[in-house]
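Example record

One chain of 487 residues, shown exactly as stored in the release files.
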Amino acid sequence: LCFFFFSSRRRHTRSASVSWARRCVQETGACDMDGPNKKPWEQSNPAFRNLPYIPGHRNLENKALPLDAQHYSPNPGDKGNYIEYNLHSMFGHYQMKATDDYFRKIKKRTFTISRSTFPGSGKYGSHWLGDNKSLWPFLSYSIIGIYNFQMFGIPFTGADVCGFNGNTTIELCRRWYQLAAFYPFCRNHNDIDTVDQEPYSNELLTETASTALQLRYSLIRYMYTLHMMVAQNGGAYFTPLFFEFPNDLKVIENPELTFMLGPAIKVSPVLQEGADTVKTYFPNANWYHLETGRKDAVYKEGAVNGTTIVLEASLEKKTINAHVKGGCIIPIQDTSHHPVLNTEALRQMQTGFIIAANHLDKAEGVVLYDDGERVDSIDTKAYQVFNLTYEKGRLSIEYLTDSTYRFAEDYKDENLGETRMYGAKIYQNVKYACANLHTGKRIRLDAIYDIKYDVLLMKPTSVIPIMNIHSIIWNDDRITCQPTYLL
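Predicted structure tokens for this chain:
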């Protein structure tokens, strides 16, 4: 275990500390990120010891440097700004920066998580919300906490699933897994003296956690796309509804009760003990149940506000109340029939799309992905981008990447999986669709209409790399497709 300490009155100590930290990671693979466990060797002057406001009402020099300690400054003429008083809250930030610097030099992507962060720390690592409690109010507290850190520039944030302090209950833990499936960062973590809360510790918990986590895996392509877009452009992707619907004043009420995952998915978790229904507000749009495609809310022409609906949410039903907004297209992988245990297995699976039509029978979306290993994939454009647009029975796929980079041989090109169209009543008589390739060939997709949920399911009859497709059509009875075409 290593302790990183990057500030000192001595000019040479910072570079020496960073070098030592790099050797620690290289030789041991693990580093203790706790703060200094000793009293300062000297106190600051009285002006720093008698502050008008003390965060946390505790001595800021306890287990830390004196507040007037001078840190190393890269600019010798600017020493006054590099005192502990100004940098006290940035200790964890610079720990993550040094760790990220090392892994970038050896060209390895790293996963660094810290409880001690500062606005902008998301450039170097991620954050967890600290020692929460195994109590029902902390479900909604976690949602608010993630909102905050999205705005602090640390999008990859999450809470300790099932709670850290105190003994959880089976019901609380099951509900927490359903919520945490949509956290940017999802991790179970608890105190050593509390009851077991791992997914395998109870049969009911195993069932719920498995269902929730497989749903999360099915959405990894979408969540990864959101994270890559935020990494490039800034912003947030786990947000209250008013980020997407700023003109609807009703979404301001109780923002912790429901949230958006990117522009497409609205999640309505159960946050109350003993509840088997959830009351949630839908802004004015078409809203389709994520897993079934059932339309639960309909766009109303000219309306400013949406509607409030009570949804069934029994734990026995196993489903989570998440909805896709009309007008959106998201990537999806079929983990319900083919469960996976890691993202390596997920990469070998086909990727389909959910097309959620709006009231104009249109939708759009984007998919980004890279090899998951390179640290410079964005800077070197070593990733693939597919721009998706749908209108009236035609899905267009535009390959936007201007890079010649190809993934490592052990990662195959993404192949098309089952595509689902939600709100497909006008296409209920369609028996097949055609994938139009850039080569001029056409490949048939078998189509089945689900009358119960108003969903059109389209499944390829052969292997088709997505980047070979420029469109899929199912709006013309006169189209003809080759039954199969081996690429």
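Notes: The longest helix spans residues 13-28.
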